[in-house]
């Protein structure tokens, strides 16, 4: 099958004809119909944080089940599915409590050592499977726990982005923060994930949704998605601006979708007493925190991974919201491209007016 393979760090993707194994046990083979371009795949290609080349990346996928392993119970051939990179066993104490993102046995979602690889190149040499999905290809072989059945009327491009950017952004608000109706939220970074934080705040009934970014075009899109106030942090001190909008107090809920030291600092400093900064972005490095003001102000910083929820439950709920017209996914999809144009697609993502690019042509 055709796939885009990262052969060297920072060198982009090359088109290759590779081999994919037949499904074993709880594995499901999916004909991919849509595959979203996510910044974390570009980070992996560039730096090899968790996956070293050669590797097939891509984790925002939707498609149709082609084959199932002998132990699969939740899906059948012909089902439409969306994928999510959260690997979980479904049996440990964490999973049974509903915290599958902290599963004790995530390795159960991949093939054990000694088994033949899921992916190999034309010469039979193993290829790493990015995030146990490897969606920049015509087919994906994944554990059934990482796939969610969706209605046939759900468009594949919109379904593909559900499993990462949408579930992360909306889940940060609804699962991690549990924002209450009438509250005020601030979102630092109004790109693809940030727009979904805005959508989550809308669903939660926030009274003010403050979007913060460096680009006016991005902020205009944020208003289209439901931001009530926007702040260009390149022109205005975002901490002072947020406090001005909140009577000098700050917000109980701040979401940092960027994750660099400067935005973490801003997010923390704009908190009201008793407020929490929810850290979504993975920009890297650290920042200093004075313990005494933190203790007396009862502030907190909480990490958010993939929306801190249950993908099989949350993706199904998000599909229902989209079908009911209550969740804006259509405006997330800025462009659809062919698999062969993957490198150009990532170049297009640098345009602040491009929200999400999705591969829909796998010929």
TrEMBL record:
<dbReference type="InterPro" id="IPR036291">
    <property type="entry name" value="NAD(P)-bd_dom_sf"/>
</dbReference>
<dbReference type="GO" id="GO:0005829">
    <property type="term" value="C:cytosol"/>
</dbReference>
<dbReference type="Pfam" id="PF08240">
    <property type="entry name" value="ADH_N"/>
</dbReference>
<dbReference type="InterPro" id="IPR011032">
    <property type="entry name" value="GroES-like_sf"/>
</dbReference>
<keyword id="KW-0520">NAD</keyword>
<dbReference type="GO" id="GO:0046294">
    <property type="term" value="P:formaldehyde catabolic process"/>
</dbReference>
<comment type="similarity">
    <text>Belongs to the zinc-containing alcohol dehydrogenase family.</text>
</comment>
<dbReference type="InterPro" id="IPR013154">
    <property type="entry name" value="ADH-like_N"/>
</dbReference>
<keyword id="KW-0560">Oxidoreductase</keyword>
<feature type="domain" description="Enoyl reductase (ER)">
    <location>
        <begin position="10"/>
        <end position="359"/>
    </location>
</feature>
<dbReference type="InterPro" id="IPR013149">
    <property type="entry name" value="ADH-like_C"/>
</dbReference>
<keyword id="KW-0862">Zinc</keyword>
<dbReference type="Pfam" id="PF00107">
    <property type="entry name" value="ADH_zinc_N"/>
</dbReference>
<protein>
    <submittedName>
        <fullName>Zinc-binding dehydrogenase</fullName>
    </submittedName>
</protein>
<dbReference type="GO" id="GO:0051903">
    <property type="term" value="F:S-(hydroxymethyl)glutathione dehydrogenase [NAD(P)+] activity"/>
</dbReference>
<dbReference type="InterPro" id="IPR020843">
    <property type="entry name" value="ER"/>
</dbReference>
<keyword id="KW-0479">Metal-binding</keyword>
<dbReference type="InterPro" id="IPR002328">
    <property type="entry name" value="ADH_Zn_CS"/>
</dbReference>
<dbReference type="GO" id="GO:0008270">
    <property type="term" value="F:zinc ion binding"/>
</dbReference>
